[in-house]
Write a structure and sequence with these properties.
Layout lengths: L7 E6 L2 E6 L10 H16 L5 E6 L3 E3 L16 H4 L3 H11 L3 H18 L4 E5 L2 E3 L1 H8 L2 E4 L4 E3 L13 H4 L5 H10 L5 H7 L4 E2 L3 H14 L2 H11 L1 H22 L2 H11 L11
Parallel strand pairs: 2-3, 3-5, 4-6, 5-7, 6-8, 7-9
Antiparallel strand pairs: 1-2
């Protein structure tokens, strides 16, 4: 049996656990395998006393392209909700809808991953030097600190394929400018690192991300485990409240939209590199 291609690189040095999205064949899209491996590695980092923080980065020119549309008809991995830190009400909801709809299971698995990052008692830092699209913006927004390089670009492209940024809204909206998000959710426009920093999607835009990250990581190494965990709890309270309040509703919305005829046309058009049938030609 052939060895499966790796999708996530790992390494630990000087108290920092680095997780590298490494699935170039699909632009680091959130496949079932990648979601599962990220959750497992976050759990390992949490249980490793030598780790003070997690650094999330990527290979290639894309940080994360969002959902893996080639898997859109397949459920994501059935992830252990207790291990992922999902509240009891959400576990019950997930057990009900997961049996009915692969789309619902996919949305719930993604929500669980994002909540896992937010609830992790250790800071998660993102290093972005490429493109971030759709669900990738949720992955980025779930992180505590993020630095974007000059080649990074961002877009909420969901409306263009017939869906909406439902699950990603839980980490995105509490941390970003509402007027800016109204524009970018609706138009799907691309924007750069300076704009991403202005609206709060990233912490800092930098010409040299590694240079900008050096004092950040040094500061995290100096923090005590208790001090870091409780400080993070203070600044993530509103984001966690959004997950605890809205996970069921937004995962159900995402599932309903992905199962629709419009979404099927939008995803097919995307994979076929053509305009969807509803596009207005100028």
């Amino acid at each position: 049996m052939a060895t499966p291609e790796k999708v996530l690189g790992t390494g630990t040095a000087d108290g920092i656990r680095t997780l590298t999205l490494d699935s170039p064949h699909n632009r680091n899209a959130l496949s079932a395998r990648l979601v599962g491996e990220l959750c497992a590695e976050l759990e390992r980092a949490e249980n490793d006393d030598s780790v003070r923080a997690v650094l999330l980065t990527h290979t290639g020119n894309t940080f994360c392209a969002g959902a893996d549309l080639s898997e859109a008809e397949s459920p994501l991995l059935r992830l252990g909700s207790l291990r992922l830190g999902v509240p009891p009400a959400r576990r019950a909801w997930g057990s009900r809808v997961g049996k009915r709809s692969p789309h619902a299971e996919q949305a719930l698995a993604f929500a669980q991953l994002l909540r896992r990052i937010v609830a992790l008692p250790k800071p998660v830092v993102a290093r972005v030097t490429g493109h971030v699209r759709a669900g990738g913006t949720g992955l980025l927004a779930a992180c505590d600190i993020s630095v974007a390089g000059p080649e990074a670009t961002f877009a909420f492209t969901e409306a263009r394929i017939g869906v909406a940024p439902a699950v990603v809204s839980m980490p995105v909206l509490p941390r970003t400018d509402p007027r800016a998000m109204a524009r970018y959710y609706l138009t799907g426009e691309r924007f750069g690192p300076q704009e991403a920093a202005r609206i709060g999607l990233v912490t800092l835009a930098a010409d040299d991300p590694d240079e900008a990250l050096a004092p950040v990581l040094d500061g995290l190494r100096r923090g005590s485990p208790q001090g870091l965990a409780e400080s993070k709890r203070l600044v993530t309270r509103e984001v966690l409240a959004a997950f605890d309040r809205d996970t069921g509703t937004l995962a159900e919305l995402s599932a309903r939209l992905f199962a629709s005829d419009e979404a099927r046309e939008g995803m097919t058009a995307f994979l076929e590199r053509r305009e969807p049938e509803w596009a207005v030609r100028q």
